[in-house]
Structures are given as C-alpha cells and as structure tokens.
C-alpha cells in the first residue's frame, strides 16, 4: 500500500512541474489594435475655367508721324515728306475683363489660354511745328490673346503664390485722332491692327474649396508699336499730315477673379478623405 502511494505521489509531482512548463511555452494571442484611420490622397490635375476683372494703366511710348512741306527749289507745290514726333502723350487708366481655359498639370505647374478685352483708354498728347502747338486727343481699346504658363510655389494655409509668363497678340484699335491748334481742327482716322504682345505675371490664389479658387495678381504686358492714325488734308488748306505710328505700350494691370477646376480639384486645397483600415487578425504563436 505504501509502495502504491509513493508511485502516485511521484506521478503527481512530475505533473506539477510539467504543467507550468507547458503553460510557459504557449503565448497568449496579441490583443488586436483598434482600427486605424488612414488618408486617401486626393486626385490632382484637370481642366479649369477662369474669369477675371481688372484695372490697367498704360504707358505711351511715343509716336512719330509724317509731315509735308512745299518744295522751294522751283519744282512747284510738291509735298516733301518729313517726320516729327509727339512732344508727349498720356493714357488714362481703364477697366478690363477676360476669361480663359486651362489645365492644372500637377500641384506646381499649369497652363491656360486667355482672352481679355481692354476698355477704351483716353489719350491726350501734344505736337508742335516750331510756331504752333496743337492738342491731340483720341483713345484706344484692345483685345489681348495670350498663351500662358505658371509655376505654383506651394500652398500654405490655402494660399498659393505663383509666377507666370505669356505670349501672344493684341488687336489694337485707335479711335479718330483730333488734332487742334489755332485755325486748324483735323480729324485723322484711327488705325487698327494685330500686334505682338507678351506678359509677365505674379500673384496668389486662395482655396475657397478644392475646386474653386480666388485669384488676385499683377500683370505687365508689352504691346508692340503700329499704326496710330491715317493721313488727312489740313483744314487750313495746307498739305496735311499723316500717317502716324505709335511705339507701343507698357501696360500695368491689377486683376482679380475666380478659377473653377473640374475633376478631383487641386490636391493642396482639398481635405484628405479618411478611410478606415482593418488590420488582419493575429494568430497565436506557439514555440
């Protein structure tokens, strides 16, 4: 009986030591983490439409015109052409408006084509012949077409500064030029033609939404010279004068408007979209 008890005691003792060892070899499953939230990047790029209002100041770069005198060498009253320049000329400020279509290539580069109408800017100038001083008045308007490229310099608190440049042409239309001095009141027909133009821009846009932005900036435009007015007989009975050619304009313009981008919008302007992420289940590991 005692012998059997010893055997039972030994078996229980072995079992007591083995149970903790087996328990130590088995790891409890890792507690699954809570679902994490990740952010789905917003698509960038796409076509956009723009509309702008502006106010411009034009710098008149001067003008030359042809004059005619009488031959005094016995050849009769044959007009002899010469050339004179305006003493000065000033252009008043005027409004402008325009629109365009463009493409946002990525967050840092975009292009567009624009058409802007420049309302009439009044012109006041002066000419003289050494004896008489005249007063000259007119105005000009223009249609400006440009192909533009811009570099967006990054977005901070929804504001994106940018620089850009454009190249194209301007259809310049001068009204009739009225030339007045004592005893003379001439009206020269104004010139109209296409001219080469280029522009430099700088500004910033503000994200109202990921698809709609407010754009404000400055644009410098250089317009080449061309015909300003035609020849006309003098009302005083003299040989008259013309045609005249201006030397172009330097135009400074402040503009503001809206850009609406189709598709995903501009990524820097959009709030990231949260997407729930479920990690895979973790299986218990045994040694």
Automatic annotation (TrEMBL):
It comes from Mesorhizobium zhangyense. It comes from the Bacteria. Pfam families: OMP_b-brl. Residues 1-23 form the signal peptide. Keywords: Signal. Residues 9-262 form the Outer membrane protein beta-barrel domain. This is Porin family protein.
């Amino acid at each position: 009986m005692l012998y059997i008890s010893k055997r039972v005691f030994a078996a229980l003792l072995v079992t007591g030591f083995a149970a903790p060892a087996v328990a130590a070899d088995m790891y409890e499953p890792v507690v699954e983490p809570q679902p994490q939230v990740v952010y789905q990047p917003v698509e960038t790029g796409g076509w956009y439409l723009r509309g702008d209002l502006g106010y411009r100041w034009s710098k008149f770069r001067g003008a030359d015109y042809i004059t005619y005198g009488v031959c005094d060498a016995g050849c009769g009253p044959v007009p002899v052409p010469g050339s004179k320049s305006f003493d000065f000329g000033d252009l008043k400020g005027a409004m402008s408006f325009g629109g365009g279509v463009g493409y946002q290539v990525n967050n840092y580069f975009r292009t567009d084509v624009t058409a802007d109408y420049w309302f009439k800017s009044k012109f006041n100038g002066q000419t003289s012949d050494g004896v008489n001083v005249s007063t000259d008045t007119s105005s000009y308007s223009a249609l400006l077409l440009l192909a533009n490229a811009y570099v967006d310099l990054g977005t901070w608190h929804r504001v994106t500064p940018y620089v850009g440049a454009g190249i194209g042409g301007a259809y310049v239309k001068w009204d009739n030029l009225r030339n007045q001095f004592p005893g003379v009141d001439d009206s020269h027909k104004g010139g109209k033609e296409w001219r080469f133009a280029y522009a430099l821009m700088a500004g910033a846009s503000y994200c109202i939404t990921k698809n709609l932005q407010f754009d404000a900036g400055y644009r410098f435009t250089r317009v080449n010279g061309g015909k300003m007015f035609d020849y006309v007989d003098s009302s005083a009975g003299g040989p008259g004068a013309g045609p005249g050619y201006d030397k172009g304009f330097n135009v400074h313009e402040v503009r503001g408007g809206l850009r609406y981008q189709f598709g995903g919008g501009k990524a820097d302007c959009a709030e990231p979209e949260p997407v729930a992420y479920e990690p895979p289940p973790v299986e218990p590991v045994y040694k």
